[in-house]
Amino acid sequence: MAQAILDVMPGASTGTVQVSDPLNFWAGKRVEPRQQKNAEPVFEPATGDCFFLLCLIWSKRDKPLALVEKREKIAKLEVINNGKSITEALVDIDIAWQCIEYYAGLAGALAGQHVQLPGGAFAYTRREPLGVCVGIGAWNYPFQIAAWKSAPALACGNAMVFKPSPFTPVTAVILAEIYKEAGVPDGLFCVVQGGAETGTILCQHPKVAKVSFTGSVPTGKKVMEMSAKGVKQVTLELGGKSPLIIFKDCDLENAVRGALMANFLTQGQVCCNGTRVFVQKDIMPQFLEEVVKRTKAILVGDPLLDSTRMGALINKPHLEKVLGFVSQAKLQGARVLCGGERFVPSDPKLVNGYFMSPCVLDNCRDDMTCVKEEIFGPVMSVLPFDTEEEVVQRANNTTFGLASGVFTRDISRAHRVAENLEAGTCFINNYNISPVEVPFGGYKMSGFGRENGQVTIEYYSQLKTVVVEMGDVDNYF
Ligand SMILES: NC(=O)C1=CN([C@@H]2O[C@H](COP(=O)(O)OP(=O)(O)OC[C@H]3O[C@@H](n4cnc5c(N)ncnc54)[C@H](O)[C@@H]3O)[C@@H](O)[C@H]2O)C=CC1
Ligand SMILES: NCCCC(=O)O
What we know:
The chain is an alpha/beta fold. It has 14 helices and 20 strands. A hairpin with a 2-residue loop joins strand 1 and strand 2 (about 30). Gamma-amino-butanoic acid binds near residues 145, 270, 272 and 434. It comes from Nothobranchius furzeri. Keywords: Oxidoreductase.
């Protein structure tokens, strides 16, 4: 069971862990897939070695041990599977735990409304579950995404079948076991492994009432299309190309920190990253000097070491894709101020890992591919601007709308810019913090629906109106 995986962890170091336990969770226990075919290797990003064989087809039809106690072990597994640094993985597990606590608390606060009607009649509303919800996760925050989707779903009385990304199948099943230990009835939270085919089966299943998806825009469109056929509700957390606007009156030190937070968490593989960094021309030289100095100082390497600040990208094709964006940016006239190359750590066991040096691009223009498309890697594009009006117009000139940020000491400007930016979140004088109390989700092609915050209850429940007559029926016939 989970212990089997978790018990190997105390002595674990990068390159030593092999996972052999089944990773599907059905009817209260780990189970092997019914058809053991199409096994695909899952690679450890830091070493490039296979550490698990995942069967992609699932044909099944038909006193709590706190998460906080398992925190470090889950974080280590997350690192081995995803490649992010242990420092970040621990934060991710904490956020997952806070999310579960938050919605467990909100469960008892679900309430309807009482409406008085003429003649003593009245009506009330009830929040009821939707039924079976499907969660489809991405590989950048495997455990956290499973928690963000399942916690509100279960709090509202639904069941959830969760499908992790086939690149990061390892930790969702541990969440299932934690729920079981906490008393969640068998079958209420299941984990099904697989890729597009499994995701399609889940989205098309007639007994599924809702799909909550995190991933790319093209796949999100397919999920929406399939769900539409069954009139299923959908939450879509898709990609982004978010603007971060830095005005000359900012606290420069904080703005630089914010730009790093906006670009380099999880090796830059974060949907809400502020990858278009607009800097007011007057402070461009100081900003670039400081941001480059700090970017060069980011320690890339073994993600299980406490000192490491940036680990490995998710897989080889993705690393090549990100490096390809940098090459294309150069061809289109961008200047690489630092990084943007494959990085080979000195530790021999990491030579085949998917590491790259974090990159800052200068001389960028709005029409460049690196400025228009989601790179999903550690690549920051810096763009100069003159006026507030101009920068807001340029910031909004994108089909995405997930997040945005502004650094300024002018409080009126900060709120005006926040109002005018077309994005689901605007950070003022910070970036990429994820308090569970705060709704998270997109505008435009970054999706719709929300995760986190009280409002998410509305996306995992339906409202029933009960009308009560206290007198005689008024009969027209
Ligand atoms: N919004 C975000 O947080 C994320 C965005 N991305 C973006 O997407 C790009 C591609 O990454 P992928 O992992 O291939 O993303 P993807 O969007 O294809 O996959 C996300 C999830 O959807 C599942 N899936 C794939 N095809 C499906 C289908 N037809 N029906 C139902 N489920 C399906 C996958 O198995 C995975 O669990 C990345 O390079 C990045 O730009 C990737 C991960 C997270
Ligand atoms: N902690 C932020 C998660 C955002 C994302 O899913 O990419």
